[in-house]
Amino acid sequence: MSVPGPGVNQPLNRCSLTAAVVQVQGLRYTPAGIPVINLVLEHESVITELDTPRTVKLQIKAVAFGALAEVLARQGLETVCEFHGFLANARNGKGTAFHIQDFSKT
């Protein structure tokens, strides 16, 4: 797949998710000294699909860098927030990770 040039619609990879923090690994640092935190987020909602209510439950691996990682390291478990970011392959190549770029408590 090629990426369109300037002035052409760019591929879109933006995600928003209301979720609870259910797992937090300890804050660590990259070799360059950038703070990193890995989390697991849990979401539950009812979505209408084909005129039928569907209960959606999911857990997703998430990661945050920099000052945002430091703030998230201080959040308690089960804290429900609205997270914004993008999806990418997980660091180990297994599955998908939600890269958090911003969040706010709900």
Automatic annotation (TrEMBL):
Protein family membership: Belongs to the PriB family.
Record keyword DNA-binding present: yes
Quaternary context: Homodimer. Interacts with PriA and DnaT. Component of the replication restart primosome. Primosome assembly occurs via a 'hand-off' mechanism. PriA binds to replication forks, subsequently PriB then DnaT bind; DnaT then displaces ssDNA to generate the helicase loading substrate.
Encoding gene (name): priB
Pfam families: SSB_1
HAMAP family for the chain: PriB
Purpose: Involved in the restart of stalled replication forks, which reloads the replicative helicase on sites other than the origin of replication; the PriA-PriB pathway is the major replication restart pathway. During primosome assembly it facilitates complex formation between PriA and DnaT on DNA; stabilizes PriA on DNA. Stimulates the DNA unwinding activity of PriA helicase.
InterPro entries xrefs: NA-bd_OB-fold, Prisomal_replication_PriB
Superkingdom of the source species: Bacteria
Keyword hit for DNA-binding: yes
Name of this protein: Replication restart protein PriB
Classification lineage: Bacteria, Pseudomonadati, Pseudomonadota, Betaproteobacteria, Burkholderiales
